[in-house]
Amino acid sequence: MDKQTKEVFPVSKKLLLPSIVAACLAIGCAGETTSSTTATGESLESRPITEVAADHDGLLTLLAALEAADLIETLAADGPFTLFAPTDEAFAKIPKEDIDALLADPDALRDLLLYHVVADDLTAADVLAATSLTTVQGAEITVQAEAATLNGTVNLIETDIIAENGVIHLIDSVLMPLADEGMEGD
Prior knowledge:
Radius of gyration: 15 Å
Mean pLDDT: 80
CATH architecture: Roll
Number of helices: 9
Low-confidence stretches: 1-43, 181-186
CATH class: Mainly Beta
Shape: globular
Strand content: 15-25%
Largest sheet: 7 strands, mixed
CATH topology: FAS1 domain
Number of domains: 1
């Protein structure tokens, strides 16, 4: 991990599990506002997805999970990427034992997180114009445009958060691969 990434994500490996569990329990900390600039006045559009996400309220659990799965540098790369970002509240819906199981299996955690990434720069209009999207993990996400949902139950709650290497859309639940597709490595 490069020095810049370490400064943005100073979470040590010893603190990952408590950080993820604490973030899942902190349901009330999720915010739903975005800003086009940081506190220093830097445009969000000039920074990669991971840094933009780090400045957004309510994505602490996602960032800790990305760190645990060693995906920070991947999502800081050139892209383009579309990240369907589950909020802290979305992760809080997952039972603790399921989170513990994911943390114990880094490959499963990585696959689950890559199921939230599409290798393209898709605005909300682009997403809703599609019937399905192929994720970096390899499985499909189905899109229901009339309800603005993914896989039939996951709602887009905040969209078009622009980063240098793609776009972030906040979602209200963690996406799970459709039953007939499964996860790679299963």
